[in-house]
């Protein structure tokens, strides 16, 4: 009887009708489907049968009787007239604790050759709404990152969201891997959006390492993935992080990079006929950015938090380009990595004079803030006079503060140098900074 009851429930749950249309045209990445009038919705999933197998697609636009779709995989082999089935229900993700240590694609499918993923009991939407502002708790205590530049001058707090602004090749991925291994949170969820394919395995094996991977879930959509898959990977990263946050965990969410998410959204918008606006980015790019980034942060009462670090690949080292400018206005601070500092051989190449944490000064003790401000003053004085000093145009004794800055700046720079296996501590970093300030003032 129990078997019959289960069969009856399955029959009742089976959809009574199925909707399908046919491919009317393929224009570049855009697939136009007719015959789904009144049944297709924005975000609906479509399965298109072609000679190479099934192509998964999503409805991204509607124009009278035509549904505009983009595919998650290569649309090679699609012909006009091909049947397109509208899939019932919403696409969901079902993460569990057994996902830790695994690598998945933008749709949450395993790509690490470790077998199928366990399915959790609770479904979670890929694109969820951020928590209501009135229901969120406050940003929590300071987190120890192990990176001296951050712990001293741009601290990270539990539930805070920081942007990491950098050009290509200045050590951004290495810094992210240090944070994934060292920040004192329960779990790390890492989204590699638009990464070079050859670098993914290097990041997982060398930078992240077995210790970091064991407490992480890595979501990957490489640069050759369709725009829809790259956008989806960003949503999946936040959806997995939200699952652990709602279970009461403190999560570190790292995304590299938000710029490639924005580029993917731009491709989708242009394919749907949106007008290009600032530097070719469509209006939906600037609408989607806050919806994505606001999903990180503190949860509600009884929940955990998502501490977010989102990298921004600045175009041509221009930190005022549209995506960098938009992201900087949304997040709770920004870390600037400088090519000039990297060329001097100091890693992490964080420009502490241009980096800001909006949790300051409250997250530091009074004495820590005194040391931080004094060090920043000396570094700023040295930066103003650096060219004159190098040219020999500055005469020692002309200004006492500049003289002290010239003595102190190299020592601070040396303190901030770190290898990727050299983990720092907040207490030791401030003790060393206090020692340097005392030595130079004598």
UniProtKB/TrEMBL annotation:
<dbReference type="Pfam" id="PF00006">
    <property type="entry name" value="ATP-synt_ab"/>
</dbReference>
<dbReference type="InterPro" id="IPR040627">
    <property type="entry name" value="T3SS_ATPase_C"/>
</dbReference>
<keyword id="KW-1278">Translocase</keyword>
<keyword id="KW-0067">ATP-binding</keyword>
<dbReference type="InterPro" id="IPR000194">
    <property type="entry name" value="ATPase_F1/V1/A1_a/bsu_nucl-bd"/>
</dbReference>
<dbReference type="Pfam" id="PF18269">
    <property type="entry name" value="T3SS_ATPase_C"/>
</dbReference>
<keyword id="KW-0963">Cytoplasm</keyword>
<keyword id="KW-0406">Ion transport</keyword>
<keyword id="KW-0282">Flagellum</keyword>
<dbReference type="InterPro" id="IPR003593">
    <property type="entry name" value="AAA+_ATPase"/>
</dbReference>
<keyword id="KW-1005">Bacterial flagellum biogenesis</keyword>
<keyword id="KW-0066">ATP synthesis</keyword>
<protein>
    <recommendedName>
        <fullName>Flagellum-specific ATP synthase</fullName>
        <ecNumber>7.1.2.2</ecNumber>
    </recommendedName>
</protein>
<dbReference type="InterPro" id="IPR050053">
    <property type="entry name" value="ATPase_alpha/beta_chains"/>
</dbReference>
<dbReference type="InterPro" id="IPR005714">
    <property type="entry name" value="ATPase_T3SS_FliI/YscN"/>
</dbReference>
<feature type="domain" description="AAA+ ATPase">
    <location>
        <begin position="158"/>
        <end position="342"/>
    </location>
</feature>
<keyword id="KW-0375">Hydrogen ion transport</keyword>
<comment type="function">
    <text>Probable catalytic subunit of a protein translocase for flagellum-specific export, or a proton translocase involved in local circuits at the flagellum.</text>
</comment>
<keyword id="KW-0969">Cilium</keyword>
<keyword id="KW-0813">Transport</keyword>
<keyword id="KW-0547">Nucleotide-binding</keyword>
<dbReference type="InterPro" id="IPR020003">
    <property type="entry name" value="ATPase_a/bsu_AS"/>
</dbReference>
<keyword id="KW-0653">Protein transport</keyword>
<keyword id="KW-1006">Bacterial flagellum protein export</keyword>
<dbReference type="InterPro" id="IPR027417">
    <property type="entry name" value="P-loop_NTPase"/>
</dbReference>
<dbReference type="InterPro" id="IPR022426">
    <property type="entry name" value="FliI_clade3"/>
</dbReference>
<comment type="similarity">
    <text>Belongs to the ATPase alpha/beta chains family.</text>
</comment>
<keyword id="KW-0966">Cell projection</keyword>
